[in-house]
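Can anyone check this?
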Amino acid sequence: MFKKVFKGSIPGILVGVAATLAAPVVLAVVAAAGRPILKAAIRTYLDVSERTREIVDEAREQWSDVVAEARSEHVENAPDHDSSPAAHAKKRKIEPKEAPAT
């Protein structure tokens, strides 16, 4: 009965034992080879993020300049600088409503 239970399992057990014994060596080799690759990937990420930050800062500065120019032109071209509700009503020729009598 013992032979029937473990008949096909011996090769699988041997593979498991071999993998367990080889794992530290394989992991050390992969770690040694992977470290330079990982460092290169991190350096690339840092370079790309720095360049992206520079591009975004430049775009933000250009956008601010355009907005400032538009505001300046808007103020220069506006005939009346009074933005109160009464001035707005006067422009539209709306008579202000009288308060209801109580």
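Reply from J.R.: I decoded it. The CA atoms of residues 89 and 95 lie 7 Å apart.
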